[in-house]
Amino acid sequence: MSAPAPIPFIDLRPGEDAALVREAIDRVIARGWFVLGPEVEQFEAAFASASGAPFAVGVGSGTDAISLALRALDIGAGDEVIIPALTAAYTGLAVIAAGARPVIVDVDADTLTIDPAACAAAVTPRTRAIVPVHLYGQPAEMNAVRRVAGRHSLAIVEDCCQAHLATEDGVPVGTRADAVAFSFYPTKNLGALGDGGAVVTGNASLAERIRRLRNGGQSHRYHHLEAGVNSRLDELQAAVLAARLPRLLHWTARRRTLAALYRRELPPAVATIRERDPGHVYHLFPVRVPDRDALQGHLTSAGIETLIHYPVALTEQPALATLASRECPVAAAAAREVLSLPLHPRLSDADAIRVAREVEAFRKGRRLE
């Protein structure tokens, strides 16, 4: 009997959207306008509408989106910004890029999103903002985070890089924040064919300043009012994203279906991350097991690709370790236990069930035939 076909963690090649992606690329090439043109403007308007906010500003990456949002809020040297310990390091690096100091706090044991109580305990006279991360596509407990921010007059910049179209209590994430950062890295729920990002906000003056900062601080051509950066979403990526955006709701529904299938089919001995709100968009589907590396090895030998999000808590990252003033035991434990299973819109039900069966087989000490 031949071995079953491998199950990749994700497939980034255009699929059902291939013709529209090619059409978008050809249109941009034919026009010959590649930076800050009509494709970016049209995508910004469409993405703002889809996100439930008046303004979206396309930038070079999700990291830049966080950094530029903080800068536009006049947060920089001497300021502290609270971030969670379990996230991609780029969340912390974005704070550093803005000139501020990231203050790393622990996460909730059930959802692995930022712990509001830890946020409250970390506030000092220098604290200016909180950057909660909607990890794995799950909205953080924003009502509690907003209460902390309100008590101390802190800005909120939500890291929605994994949470396109997520909602909390039926309300789109970020619509009650000062600004929201999105990434369009190819693996995201809405992915480009390269790097890209956007800041979404309801504040017109903030949006205007971010537009200026992303383009070297220019008020108009060759007139620089402040020291900005070069971080512009290009026309090709904007055109591809605009072509894919109408399919995002359908793709999100498929992700939720696969997540429900995993929750039903995985063995009870394997812990999943609690779904706190049905607005979860399942960018990733991690499980928690104490013998994570052994499980990953078993699945690899069965032809199933998995990844770890994330293997190192920010408090233990060499680039950020000197900033860590407190231990974050929940994040550190999760970093040793989480393993992300394949979950993307092109994954079949049969493949997801096969993944679950192999996890069950590992728990029983055997391999499927």
What is shown here, in short?
The chain is an alpha/beta fold. It contains 12 helices and 14 strands.
Folded structure, characterized:
With 369 residues, the chain is an alpha/beta fold. A seven-stranded mixed sheet has the order 1-9-8-5-4-2-3, sandwiched between helices. Strands 12-13-14 form a three-stranded antiparallel sheet. The protein has a two-stranded antiparallel ribbon with strand order 6-7. The radius of gyration is 21 Å and the shape is globular. The protein starts with 17 loop residues before the first helix and ends in a 6-residue tail after the last helix.
Annotation keywords:
369 residues; alpha/beta; three-stranded antiparallel sheet; 12 helices; 14% strand; globular
Strand-helix topology:
Blueprint: H1 18-31, H2 38-51, E1 55-59, H3 62-72, E2 80-84, H4 90-97, E3 101-105, H5 116-122, E4 127-130, H6 142-152, E5 155-159, E6 167-168, E7 171-172, E8 179-183, E9 197-201, H7 204-214, E10 218-220, E11 223-224, H8 235-244, H9 248-265, E12 271-272, E13 285-288, H10 292-301, H11 329-337, E14 338-341, H12 349-363
Parallel strand pairs: 2-3, 2-4, 4-5, 5-8
Antiparallel strand pairs: 1-9, 6-7, 8-9, 10-11, 12-13, 13-14
Helix pairs in contact: 1-8, 2-8, 3-4, 3-7, 5-6, 9-12
